[in-house]
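Backbone shapes recur. Consider a single case.
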Amino acid sequence: MCSREILSNVGKKEYACIDLNEEHRAIPLGLNQPLEDISLYGQFDMLTDFGCNEHAFNIAEAYRTMHSLCKKKGLLVIFQGIWK
């Protein structure tokens, strides 16, 4: 089950995700490069990172992109699991 389905089951109607492969109707963005599509700036109330951004080669740019996508007073949820 993808995140879109989970959020839909709890009543959230709008959902977007980012992935270069465009799976699950994802917005095709590379997180290693600066976000150039300014139409996406400040568009999202909440952004989540459940353990992906640390795998980008340019981690700082990945998080800069999250900040750019988030609305003012929006919420960034970042979960980094620790192994052992």
Summary: The chain has a mean pLDDT of 88. The longest strand covers residues 70-78. The chain is about 20% helix and 20% strand. The radius of gyration is 13 Å.
